[in-house]
Write a structure and sequence with these properties.
alpha+beta, Glutamine Phosphoribosylpyrophosphate, subunit 1, domain 1, Rossmann fold, 6-stranded antiparallel beta sheet, about 35% helix, about 20% strand, globular
């Protein structure tokens, strides 16, 4: 990850430095600041990976771009640019020159995981990828549009902060517009087995594309199906694969992750933590996460700790986020009465990723100056997954979730892994009730009843969530509208 910030006003270098200083952990390089007669923007990138070129400008310096993330079709776009020679072929440079040649049409052409700010003469253009993999927030400072990668960069500057909607671009003098959503790939499938075989090819291409050259990479490995599949697919493309898992003593994730690492001959590292360790990082996690949603905070603690471990060894990791959403991996989805209902449920779960699970992945990696790629959410995988009939995603007399994924990779991983039942992140890490019990000891029944109404039609769901909400409020006050905070609908 990297950090970006900007304002539609000139000569605001001090302000941009201040904004970036609040999210300086997102990068490992010194801030780069650019300004013209209308806009000031800045970025901090990662020295060890491609994001070190997060700021690019035109040869005349009349326009520039700050960019967090990566394009997954960068090479294809580079070939269709007619009037520009690339100095570095960085994603930021491709988008900037693509905008010069194609204007708003460029947002129908780019694919990937990104958030960006682009200055074009007196215009400021903002954009975010279709699923919201990379974060972006906006507000107004003295009437001037501001943007930043995280909420905390805008706290104290703007009155109200809003999440920039995924799959949209904004042109400062024209408005906010959606660009093409992901549509199912046009594929011809005769049976469920064929869908599984084709999925392996699509996902393998995504994993291969996600692995940068000449950089040590790792996988956050829970021992669940999604992360285990990524580890298995990525292993042939690197000389050495590092895998990382974390959990409480006796956690099932630790056992299964070791089994996967041994099977694929990865260099495995694990961290065993205690309830005290979880409590120690709780406030930091809520500050970084910018949420008080109880299931999200709980899972982020485990994610934060494994990300901290991984950062000691590699600057770049693969995360299995998105597998459950694309392939109906949740128990509640087995209750759907029809394929249509399940299809809509899958689409809802994908749409909810941007301010829940993807926010967890982004903040956990960014907190330690690392980049986390999500190969399941590569556009080609998403389009293919949407085309697979819902009736094949949960299949068989035992209603096995994510059937195409499991079946397709069944010859690459042990049965104990590939057919392992889905468990929540915090459950697999062995921390299912630790945080609930802690909140129970801190908050009385009367306190919960008197404090749980925090806004119109907004109720705190549990004592655990109230405990997190108190911490959240201590950091962010009333600057963040409650309806901007993502909440887990199904537990």
């Amino acid at each position: 990850m990297s950090g970006i910030a900007g304002i539609l006003a000139p000569n605001q270098e001090k302000l941009i430095h201040k904004m970036l200083s609040k999210i300086k952990y997102r990068g490992t390089s010194q801030p780069q600041i650019w300004t013209n007669m209308h806009t000031t923007m800045g970025t901090i990138g990662l020295k060890a990976v491609f994001q070190k070129r997060g700021l690019s400008s035109t040869p005349s310096d009349a326009g520039a771009i700050v960019f967090d993330g990566r394009l997954t079709n960068r090479k294809k776009l580079r070939k269709i640019l007619k009037s520009h020679d690339m100095q570095h072929e960085a994603s930021s440079e491709v988008v900037l020159h693509g905008f010069e040649e194609n204007k708003m049409k460029i947002f129908e052409m780019i694919d990937g995981e990104f958030a960006l700010g682009l200055a074009n003469n007196d215009q400021l253009v903002l954009a975010r990828d279709r699923l919201g993999i990379r974060p972006l927030y906006i507000g107004f400072y003295e009437g001037n549009l501001c943007f930043a990668s995280e909420i905390k960069a805008l706290i104290g500057l703007v009155d109200k902060i809003h999440e920039f909607p995924p799959g949209h671009f904004l042109i400062s003098d024209m408005g906010l517009f959606p660009y093409n959503p992901y549509l199912p790939e046009e594929i011809d499938l005769e049976n469920a087995g064929e869908s599984a075989n084709q999925l392996v090819d699509v996902l393998d291409d995504s994993v291969k594309e996600a692995i940068p050259k000449n950089i040590d990479i790792g996988v956050w490995l829970s021992g669940g199906v999604d992360s285990s599949v990524l580890a298995s697919l990525s292993r042939p493309y690197v000389d050495q694969l590092y895998t990382f898992s974390a959990g409480m003593k006796g956690a099932p994730d630790l056992k299964f992750a070791r089994e996967v690492a041994d099977h694929i001959e990865a260099q495995h590292h694990e961290r065993i933590y205690t309830e005290k360790d979880m409590e120690k990082v709780l406030e930091k996690v809520i500050y970084l996460l910018e949420s008080f949603d109880a299931p999200l905070v709980r899972s982020t603690i485990a994610n934060y700790l494994v990300a901290e471990l991984a950062a000691d060894y590699v600057p770049y990791v693969l995360s299995g986020e998105g597998g459950d959403e694309l392939f109906a991996g949740y128990d509640y989805q087995k209750e759907c009465d029809s394929g249509v209902e399940l299809m809509l449920s899958v689409q809802d779960s994908i749409a909810a990723l941007h301010n829940t699970a993807l926010q967890r992945v982004d903040r956990s990696a960014a907190a330690h100056g690392t980049y986390a790629a999500v190969p399941y959410l590569h556009p080609d995988v998403v389009r293919y997954a949407l085309a697979v009939p819902s009736k094949w995603k949960i299949k068989g007399p035992k209603a096995v979730e994510k059937w195409p994924l499991r079946k397709g990779l069944s010859d690459r991983l042990p049965d104990s892994i590939i057919w392992r039942k889905k468990v929540k992140f915090w459950q697999g890490a062995g921390a299912a009730h630790a945080m609930e019990d802690m909140a129970e000891s801190k908050i009385s029944d009367s306190e919960f009843e008197s404090e749980r109404i925090v806004g119109p039609n907004f109720l705190i769901k549990s004592k655990e969530e109230l405990h997190y909400y108190r911490i959240f409020k201590s950091f962010f006050r009333d600057n963040v509208p409650l309806d901007e905070v993502g909440r887990t609908e199904h537990i």
